[in-house]
């Protein structure tokens, strides 16, 4: 039966080596004049004796907790846990822990979440803002992940170019009448994706935009989108701005007897974890979340460092006008457009002969 050993303190390491605690501290922090030979002995002693640095002591010494905050707009959306995981991995690689808060899609909750994280002493905060909101001065270093068109954005996917890629894909399949499906016009991300889709489809492709929030304001949450009528009107492709909407469209089309992709194509954005396993698998755009997370953490870390200079104060992470490229993932929910089927109308006039 093994017995866990109590971690050694810096004082105990100093006593074991016959040096002062200050010498041990300087060797471990890289400060002061400590020879390379002694530094190596001290570091080996920390391993042999099981020394664990005190975060509380480090906080008192540096004024930093080594923890950053992450505010997400809706943890129930499958995309945001994926973002949280990427941020946590990038933060851990940079030496930070992460506290996560959920704004639940409400501006007031977003403000409250930011306040709670600041109260807990985080060194800085990464915010994925609730759609239609802007993050002003919050009194601590901050990085924003939204869209290149968002004022103050730090890093994000190139949502416009993702739309262009999908628009060209659908046009290349011969679709001449496309319904673009978005949730809200208040979202910069959704607006950029819609704009890119239109640009990618080109001027010769007929398209309309359906805003689900407007429809639900009239018919209620979760109402039918009326896609069967669109199919009857000649629409052969339905391009949603995220995979949850694409799944909603796909489900409705199949329920109403429309074969996907033979009679209608469906596409989305974000490549959620289930997008490849539904039937048929959804054609979508994949975000490079690892790169976005790395850049966000790096920019926030730089802002934290800048805020520690004599005239620093709370800093906003360096802004980027260039988005991270998205990858088109073609699956079985999109296919060649069907030729329009002309159904002859019977002549019901009475025979006048």
Automatic annotation (TrEMBL):
It holds the Pfam family LacI. Residues 8-62 form the HTH lacI-type domain. Residues 9-52 form the HTH cro/C1-type domain. SUPFAM superfamilies: lambda repressor-like DNA-binding domains (SSF47413), Periplasmic binding protein-like I (SSF53822). Keywords: DNA-binding, Transcription, Transcription regulation. One of its GO terms (molecular function) is transcription cis-regulatory region binding. This is LacI family transcriptional regulator.
